[in-house]
Every structure is written in C-alpha cells, then in structure tokens.
Amino acid sequence: MSKKRRLVRERVLQALYAYEISREPIEFIIENIVGDLKKQNDAFEFAKNFILKVVSSSKEIDALIRQRVEHWEFNRIAIIDKIVLRMGICELLYFEDIPPKVSINESIEIARTFSTEKSDKFVNGVLDSILDDLKSTGQLKKSGRGLLESTSTKKKQE
After folding, report:
1. Which domain CATH number covers 109?
2. pTM of the model
3. Which residue in 45, 24, 23, 25 sits closest to 34, CA to CA?
4. CA–CA separation, 58 vs 122, rounded Å?
C-alpha cells in the first residue's frame, strides 16, 4: 500500500503544481492528471480528496508555513517545496488515518526526489516544528491504533 500511496502522492504533487502554475479549474486538472486512477477507485478518491483539501485549505496552511519561515520571504520558497509542505501539513491536519511520521517521511522523500538538494532538510524542519505545535496545542487529531505513538521521535531523543 505504501509504495502505491507514494505514487499517488507524486501525482497529487503534479496536479497541485499544474494548478499553481496554470490556475486552470481544479476539476479540469484532477481529470487530466489523476483521472486515469479511476480504475483504482481508492487511489483516485484519495488523490482527488487530497488535492481538493490542499486547495481549499491553502490559506490556513500557508499561514502555518509563514510562521515557520520568518527569515525567508514566502514567495522565495521553491514552488515544489511550498507544495510539498502544503501536502504534509494537510495530511497532519485533515487525514486522521495517516500517522504523522508517515506524512513527514513521505514529504521528505518527495522533496528529495523532486526538489533541490537541501529541500528534504527544509521540509523536515518545518513539518517537525508544525507537528510539535499541533501536539502541544491539542490540534493533532489522529485515530486508530499506533497513530499517535508513531509521531516525531525528536522529543524523545532530546
């Protein structure tokens, strides 16, 4: 399942990139970039819901990113990094069945594959910081066995 989900996440990244660049209607982009996943209904539904949630929550998510990158101009963050961060934060906030560690690890791997040499470390730092805040404020809502104890190990190591 995880390798399949990685491929779906990569397609979600492509769709969100196309949307960011073109501003074509999101339904058009979904149909053209992930429409072939309809044969695998679960994969298509996950991709479609993920894309729509990132787009509909982008203002809230971007505000969280801006809080973490005070020393950077938001507009100077690489587009791919920004989209990967939006995806990771969206999973942390709205996909209760995905463990935070999985969301962060997937984001790091996608950044490593599709963005710059230092993007994986940048994405990891921002997402770890947001995860810590979500946990400390009680905003992290995860359900299912093993989802909360598999979160960031940074605190345990300190």
Report:
1. 1.10.940.10
2. 0.88
3. 45
4. 19
